[in-house]
Amino acid sequence: MELNDLAAFVSVARAGGFRDAARSGGVSASSLSIAVRRLEAKLGLRLLNRTTRSVAPTEAGQRLIEKLTPLFGEMEAALDVLNGFRDKPTGTLKLNVPSSAARIVMPGIIAPFLKAYPDIRIEIVVEDGFVDVLSIGCDAGIRYDERLEQDMIAVPIGPRWQRFATAAAPDYLDLHGRPQHPRELLSHACLRGQFAGGAMPIWYFAREGEVLQLNPTGPLLVRPGAAIDLAVGAAVSGVGVIHLFEEMLRPHLASGALEPILEPWWQRFSGPFLYYPGHRHVPAPLRAFIDFLKAINASPVD
Questions:
Q1: How many structural domains does the chain have?
Q2: 229-240: per-residue pLDDT in tens?
Q3: Average pLDDT of the residues in 199-208
Q4: Structural domain harbouring 90
């Protein structure tokens, strides 16, 4: 078997399509298609189910991926050993991060890291569901502590404490009243988010040991990511109440476009972590990123 054909198959399966795999690998989609068809012909088995919208591995293809993933990982680790002979590490660091971290955490870290390590290339995959970072070809991920698996090593990244803020436009509050207790939100127009799997995140509030969970309704439902801007814009326009990371609402709170409500009830929680498997070789780009984060965490706060 041609190693390149096997690598082409794995990249297409991971990306979920020939175009996305071609884009990330810097090759043409047609060359990947030819390689996969050649591999399937040699094996006498279909490895990928192809439709006009998506590409997914067959049962045989999935079994092959499960066997090839650790093998390719070992090959990458063997080549990564050569980084020890360089003054500065080189290679690609692929991170899986939620949309909130992409907006709040990464902007202040990526630029200084790339300046410190100009030979490292970073790929960011934005995804809000919890995934197996290795199975999708990522070196590490960013998540909050309640969603970390026990066999993962976690390194703090970004702010150590965060809050969810609740706010609405002054015009909306003048018209509908200013809630004094979270339960009053059940009678307000609330702008909600929804995960890709269909679940809607609960609104949490806490004060003096009392914790409340609310599932309010409203006129707008958005998925995380760029669509969050639609919800924020709707809140600023006076459509309803928004409940979101304080960092995302801070510019509008500072300008007065949004007015904070129920602030004594805003939930405080620990910040995100970079997580990666502890049972495998740590690639040099990831090791450099981890050391960079640890240096930031160790720096005194002004």
A1: 3
A2: 999 999 999 999
A3: 91
A4: 86-157+271-302
**Which residue, chain included where needed, has tokens 């041609």?**
2
CA pair distance 31, 16, nearest whole angstrom: 16
- Provide, rounded to the nearest whole percent, the portion of the chain with pLDDT above 70: 91
pLDDT in tens, 258-274: 999 999 999 999 899 99
Of the two residues 74 and 65, the one the predictor is more confident about is: 65
Q: How far is CA 239 from the centre of its chain?
A: 28
Q: 187 and 175 in one domain? A: yes
Give yes or no: residues 169 and 45 share one domain. no
- Full 3-state SS string of the chain: CCHHHHHHHHHHHHHCCHHHHHHHHCCCHHHHHHHHHHHHHHHCCCCEEECCCCEEECHHHHHHHHHHHHHHHHHHHHHHHHHHHCCCCCEEEEEEECHHHHHHCCHHHHHHHHHHCCCEEEEEEECCCCCCCCCCCCCEEEECHHHCCCCEEEEECCCCEEEEEEEECHHHHHHHCCCCCHHHHHHCCEEEECCCCCCCCCEEEEECCEEEEECCCCCEEECCCCCHHHHHHHHHCCCCEEEEEHHHHHHHHHHCCCEECCHHHECEEECCEEEEECCCCCCHHHHHHHHHHHHHHHCCCC
User: Does 78 reside within a domain?
Assistant: no
Residues 265 and 194 in one domain: yes
